[in-house]
Amino acid sequence: MDDRSILYEARLNVYALLQRLYQAAPDAELLGWLAAEHPFLNFPIELDEEANAALLEVDRDCVVVSADRLVKDFRQLYIGPGAMRVPPWESVYRNEEHLLFDRHTLQVREAYARHGMEFTQIYRAPEDSLAIELEFMKVLTERLLRAVELSDPEAESILLEEQREFVNRHLLIWVPQFVALTQKQAETKFYRGLAGVLNGFLTWEGQTLALMLETA
Predict the structure, then answer these.
(1) 77-98 residues labelled b (16+ CB within 10 A) or e (exposed)
(2) For residues 184 and 88, what is the distance between their CA atoms, to the nearest angstrom?
(3) Which of 73, 75, 194, 213 is 20 to 30 A from 131 via CA?
């Protein structure tokens, strides 16, 4: 496996992990795996000092926190009942009225459609949710690995450019606000730390994708 494939594989693993943890709270089985395998302690990408502290915070809490407590925190933060503390949709952070579903929702839908993806029926949620946007990036990274396997530099370049545009025009615009609100409202170190990991990883992504396209 060459250096590009190793990097894409690392990015894929991170997107898969983050997407799963923002789609739903970990059940007892997944929490046990997190505590035993330490994916945050053995993170495949070198992040900045602040994000590294967040990685350690998540890893430590995996060992002591209960699955029930994480379910409760996840629901209070991102679902309800009542007013959710941290809306997980891009559009809420991109308009002054904090309304769900605006032109940014349509923009991400168009990005998905360019690559033959449609998430509405699968998730029954607005397409600009964090979990779906991370899923989109995960799928594009899977396709990057396939492009390398097929020795298709044109497809690889197109996918990298699409990822850079999506990170810069969407994820890096609204996720920092989502992260700050999560870190203020979360009751567990797990979700406070996970938000820091997400922020650090996306910052790294923006820098790395730009560098990869410059040197392609």
Answers:
(1) bbeeeeeebbbbbbbbbbeeee
(2) 15
(3) 213
pLDDT 10s digits, 134-144: 999 999 999 99
Fold assignment, 3-215: TorD-like (1.10.3480)
Q: What SS3 string covers the chain?
A: CCHHHHHHHHHHHHHHHHHHHHHCCCCHHHHHHHHHHCCCCCCCCCCCHHHHHHHHHHHHHHHHCCHHHHHHHHHHHHCCCCCCCCCCEHHHHHCCCCCCCCHHHHHHHHHHHHCCCCCHHHHCCCCCEHHHHHHHHHHHHHHHHHHHHCCCHHHHHHHHHHHHHHHHHHHHHHHHHHHHHHHHHCCCHHHHHHHHHHHHHHHHHHHHHHHHHHHC
Q: In the prediction, which pLDDT does 104 show?
A: 92
Q: Is the pTM of this model over 0.85?
A: yes
* Residue among 155, 153, 159, 179 nearest 18 (CA): 179
Burial readout 180-213 (b: 16 or more C-beta within 10 A, e: otherwise):
ebbbebbebbbbbbbbbbbbbbbbbbbebbeebe
Q: What is the largest CA-CA distance in the chain?
A: 51
User: How much is the pLDDT for 124?
Assistant: 64
What was the pLDDT predicted at 83? 82
pLDDT value of residue 80: 87
Which residue has tokens 């989109």? Answer: 136
